[in-house]
Design brief:
Blueprint lengths: L6 E6 L3 H12 L4 E6 L6 H4 L5 E5 L7 H11 L5 E5 L13 E4 L6 H13 L11
Parallel strand pairs: 1-2, 1-3, 3-4, 4-5
Length: 132
């Protein structure tokens, strides 16, 4: 069995303590490479940079999660997006295709990133027909 590919996780947040918490949570995970991006660095071109999963801090000042999601969907329609929020019910479920994580739950981020990334990387088996 080969070595699993590294998951490139991109965090978009203006909260330095949250970026540090996420960094600490994934630091011991050799299969996850984290890039934390502050809002002043969030431009359409930076959103097109390689990533396997986006973790979006919904509480970031001046950042509209729906606008970021729309920009991502323009260039990467199947890219997994996780939204970190203070309150799990503060965002409409349609905002994130892949999941909402409460900000205090940083320890679940590595596993959730693995799950959504693995799911999007899966290809249908050629031996299984979807026709009835």
């Amino acid at each position: 069995m080969g070595v699993p590919p590294v998951i490139r996780l991109r965090l978009l947040s203006d909260d330095a303590s949250y970026r540090e918490s996420v960094t600490d949570a994934v630091d011991h995970c050799p299969d996850i490479a984290l890039t934390a991006t502050a809002p002043d660095e969030i431009q359409p071109r930076s959103l097109r940079a390689p990533a396997d999963c986006i973790l979006l801090d919904a509480d970031t000042d001046g950042l509209s999660p729906p606008d970021v999601r729309d920009a991502l969907r323009t260039h990467h329609p199947t890219l997994p997006v996780l939204v970190a929020t203070t309150e799990p019910t503060s965002l409409p479920s349609s905002l994130s295709t892949h999941g909402i994580i409460t900000k205090p739950d940083v320890l679940v981020i590595p596993e959730v990133a693995r799950i959504v990334t693995t799911t999007t990387r899966r290809q249908p088996s050629p031996s299984v027909s979807t026709e009835q």
